Amino acid sequence: MKTIQSTMAGTVLQVTVSQGDEISAGQTVVLLESMKMEIPLEAEGAGTVQEVKVQVGDFVNEGDTVIELA
Amino acid sequence: MQKLLIANRGEIASRIIRTCKRLGISTVALYSEADREMPYVRQADESFLIGPPPVAQSYLNVDKIMEIAKETGADAIHPGYGLLSENAAFARRAEQEGITFVGPSSDVIEKMGDKMTARKTMEAAGVPIVPGMDIHSDDVEEAIRAANEIGFPVMLKASSGGGGVGMILCEDEQALTQHFASTKKRAKAYFGSDEMFLEKYIANARHIEVQIMADYEGSVLHLFERNCSMQRRNQKVVEESPSPMISSRTRESLYRIAVRAAEAVGYRNAGTIELIVDEQEGIYFLEMNTRLQVEHPVTEEVTGVDLVEWQLLTAMNKPLPVRSQEEIHSSGHSIELRLYAEDPKTFYPSPGKIERLSFPDLPGVRLDFGYEEGNQVTPFYDPMIGKLIVTGSSRSSAIARLVETVGKSEISGLKTNLPFLLELIQTDEFNQGNYHTGTIQSFSKGEMKK
C-alpha cells in the first residue's frame, strides 16, 4: 500500500482531501504548520485516498503516515 | 518596579533578564512544556510552567499569565516581541489589573495594530503613505476595480496581519483573483479578521525603519535608522545601522517623518516606524511596530543605549538619561544576522537538536541567543535560533569582521541558514550596500554573481 508521510514535525492545519478522492502527483493533501510557516504535504504519485490518518489540530512527527492510498 | 514578568520566551526573554539583573529588578519567566531546558528559564529569578507547547495553550493564554503575575506579585509585564506584544486586549487587561505594561497604551497599540486605521491616522498627520485602497467587499470584482485604479502590481494585505503573514504580491488581475479569497480566509484564521486592503507594490524598494523612543511625558526622540531590506518570505534576515546607499537628506527626512508619526499618535515607550524608500528615494510610511524589535541590537551597538533599560525607565515614569536629540549619537556600523533553523536553499523550517553551537571569540561580536548546545529547536515556535551582531568602526570593517566570524562559526545537529548567510554577505550587492527587498529572491534564483 502506498502512503503519504509527513516531511517534518508540525501541526495539521488543513486536510484538503477525503476518503475516496482521486488524487494526482504533486497535489497538496495536507497543510502543516511548523515554526509559524505553512508546509504543504504533496502526493508523490497518483492514487485513491483509502484513509486519512490525521485530523486538523493533530501533531505529527517527521515520517508519520498522514494518508493511505489504495 | 520591583518584579517584572516576561510574557515571552527564548532569546528576547534572556535579553530582558540581562538588563533587569543589572538594574536590580527581579524577573519572572514563563515556559511551555517544550521550553523547559532553555537558558532563560534558569536565568530568571522565578520560572513557571504555563502549559502545553502550542502557543494558544501557553504563551497566548492571557488568563494564566495574569494569574501568575498576581500570584508572584509582579508589578510589571514586558511582552517582548511577537506573541502578545502587540495585542491591545492584553495591554488593556494589564492596565485594568493595575500592572504596568512595558509599552505604549492599549489604545495606541489598537490604533497602530490595525493597518488600515494606521494608514488613515498617518495620512491625517501629513505622513506620506503608500498609495492604496480599502476593500470592504467579499467580491473580488471590487478588489480588481481598486487594483486597476492603483495600478498593478499590488500588494494584497490583511489589515490585522504582521510578521510577513497575511500579505501577497499580485502582479495582475489573474493573480489577484486567484489569491483574494484564500488570503482573506487565512487572515481570518490567523488574525481573527479578514479586513483587506491593497497597496501599490513598490519595486526595488528598500525597507528602512527608524527607532523611536518617546519618554513618559511624550517627548519623542529617534535613535537613527536600520536597513532591513534583506528579506525572505517578507521576513528580515539581515539588518544594519546606519543604512548604506541613502543621501544624508533622505536620512534626515526619515527621522523627521518618524518623529512626526510617533507624535501623531501620542506615543510612549520604544517603537519603530517602518518606511519604504523607493529608487528615487521617495519615502512612504509602511507600519508602526509598537514594541521592541528583533533587530534592536544594531541600534544599541551604534548608540551605546540599552533600549530595554529605556523601556523600563519610561514604564516607571522616570526620565531618560538624555533630554534632547543632540545628546544621542551614532558611531560605527553594526550588522545583525538572524540565524534560523531552516534549509539554507529552500528556507523551509528544520527543527532538531542543536549538537554544537560555537562562535569565535572576536572583538565587536555580540551573540543574542535563546538556545544553547543540547537544546531542541521545536516545531512550535519561530525558527530563529539567535542573532549574531557584529560592529566595526566602518561598514567595510564590520563586514570583514562579520565574514570572519561567520566563517569560523559552527552549528550542527540541524539545518540552519548559516551557509546561506556566509554567501550572502560576500556578494557584491551586499558589499556595495546596493540591495532591496527582492535581492534575496534573485540571489536564490542564481541571478547574482559573487
Quick synopsis:
The complex is a heterodimer of chains A (70) and B (450). With 70 residues, chain A is mainly beta.
Low-confidence stretches of chain A: none
Total strands of chain A: the figure is 8
Which strand order do you get reading across the main beta sheet of chain A?
1-8-6-3
Largest sheet of chain B: 8 strands, antiparallel
Shape of chain A: globular
Largest protein-protein interface:
A-B, 9 and 16 residues
| Amount of beta strand of chain B | 25-35%
Which class of secondary structure composition applies to the elements of chain A? mainly beta
Report Rg of chain B: 21 Å
Number of helices of chain A: 0
- Rounded to an integer in angstroms, the radius of gyration calculated over CA atoms of chain A is 11 Å
Order of helices and strands of chain A: EEEEEEEE
Name the helicity range of chain A. under 10%
Strands across the major sheet of chain B, in which order?
Answer: 14-13-10-11-12-15-20-18
From the structure provided, what is the oligomeric state, counting identical versus distinct chains?
heterodimer
Helix residue percentage of chain B: 25-40%
Provide the residue-averaged pLDDT of chain B: 95
Number of helices of chain B: 15
- Beta fraction of the residues of chain A? over 45%
Notable traits:
heterodimer; A: 70 residues; mainly beta; 4-stranded antiparallel sheet; 0% helix; 54% strand; B: 450 residues; alpha+beta; 15 helices; 34% helix; globular
Please explain how this structure is put together.
The complex is a heterodimer of chains A (70) and B (450). Chain A has 70 residues and is an all-beta fold. In chain A, 0% of the residues lie in helices and 54% in strands. Chain A is built from no helices and 8 strands. Chain A has a 4-stranded antiparallel sheet with strand order 1-8-6-3, with no helix packed on it. Chain A has a 4-stranded antiparallel sheet with strand order 5-4-2-7, with no helix packed on it. Chain A is globular and about 30 Å long. The N and C termini of chain A lie close together (6 Å). The model of chain A has no long low-confidence stretch (mean pLDDT 92). With 450 residues, chain B is α+β, with helices and mostly antiparallel strands. In chain B, strands 14-13-10-11-12-15-20-18 form an 8-stranded antiparallel sheet, sandwiched between helices. Chain B has a 5-stranded parallel sheet with strand order 3-2-1-4-5, with helices on both faces. A 4-stranded antiparallel sheet of chain B has the order 6-9-7-8. In chain B, strand 13 and strand 14 form a beta hairpin. In chain B, helix 4 packs antiparallel against helix 5 and helix 7 packs across helix 8. Classes of the chains: A mainly beta (70), B alpha+beta (450).
